Amino acid sequence: MRAPCMRPAVVGGEAGLVSVVDGTPVLLAAFTVRDQKIVAINAITDRTHVRALFSPE
Question: Are 6 and 19 in contact, with CB atoms under 8 Å apart?
Fold first, then answer.
């Protein structure tokens, strides 16, 4: 297994990231930004749910 790779992503219209391990997305995170500050981070780590939501470009 390779180390995870973080890639920028748009998640639900918010700035976010996707973490990929061995080519499989394992985490989606969305950042809520207000006044140029991150005020919330929402993450999904259920691999089945992540794969259903994430479609690579």
Answer: yes
Contacts of residue 23, Cβ cutoff 8 Å, sequence gap at least 6? none
Per-residue pLDDT of the chain (57 residues; tens, 9 = 90+): 565 788 898 888 889 999 988 888 899 999 999 999 999 999 999 988 888 887 665
Rg, C-alpha atoms of the chain:
12
Q: What angle do CA 18, 1, 49 make, to 5 degrees?
A: 35
CB 29 within 8 A of CB 43: yes
Q: What is the DSSP letter of 51?
A: H
Residues 17, 7: contact at Cβ < 8 Å?
yes
